[in-house]
Amino acid sequence: MTNTDRLPTTTLGRGGPTIGRIGLGLAALGRPGYINVGHADDVGEDRSVEGMRRRAHRVLDLAVALGITYVDAARSYGRAEAFLSDWSPSAPVTIGSKWGYTYTADWQVEADVHEVKDHSLATFERQRAETDALLGDRLGLYQVHSATLDSGILEDEAVLDALRAEPVTVGLSVSGPGQADTIRRALAIPGSPFRCVQATWNVLEPSAGPALAEAHDAGWGVIVKEALANGRLTARGDHALRGPASSDALAIAAVLAQPFVDVVLSGAATEAHLRSNVGAVEVDPDDLPTVTPEDPAAYWNRRSALDWT
């Protein structure tokens, strides 16, 4: 049974595309290693490029069958953009990607460094050309990957002018305990090129909520990533939720219940997990469990200590 008829839709920001409120992120599907709890069990022994391509295409096909119409990639997600380039969806899909990190693991899970951050104009120009070569006019949203105040990108007029010239919608993703400050700085840029923000919000780390509400009120699209706290809020994590649905569905339902959220990303690496994630749309907000948030600094320290598997 498909979910197409009951997956709610939304407009991604003022004047943006109409898409399903649950999207699919490819961070765990585009490369052999990731920091989600249990990722190694999900992908199994076949982590070859072709094995991961087949897996990604199966999950993408199911996503479309379930009514998902937004897919999130990045230059640093291994071969995620390449997997999208040779995938033919059975229904229209909006694709977003990101620049600012370069994948350096060479398809090795045990690599010392998996990605390197650089928000320079040279990196933007190189990665934008790489994305264009793979996705072309299929790209609908292009975002700065993990913008922070200390990266300097929000004061770099050369980069901001390049983003202003973009023919597609421009956004930024944020991370770390200073997400709210980064969002507010981006909102305050005169003639800001940004019309969308992607941030971490979950029941353990909700500190960006007020700033995301401000972005939403300004007409920006709001996309939430890491709703499951990199697997900590799943049944195999250290903060599994209890209620009338699976732990992951409850965690995603908690995000969907926030009035400032347009889209929440599923980071599923298996078809079974994707089906479970989409079950969030059937959860009554009144049935959501109460969770005590963690201190933001402690939360992000915990996240940075997760192993790539």
Can you walk through the features of this model?
This protein is α/β, with parallel strands linked by helices and 309 residues long. The protein has one domain (18-304): Alpha-Beta Barrel (TIM Barrel). The protein contains 10 helices and 12 strands. The strands form 3 sheets. The protein has an 8-stranded parallel barrel, surrounded by 5 helices. It has a two-stranded antiparallel ribbon with strand order 1-2.
Question: Could you provide a short overview of the structure?
Answer:
With 309 residues, this protein is α/β, with parallel strands linked by helices. The chain has a single domain (18-304), classed as NADP-dependent oxidoreductase domain (TIM Barrel), CATH 3.20.20.100.
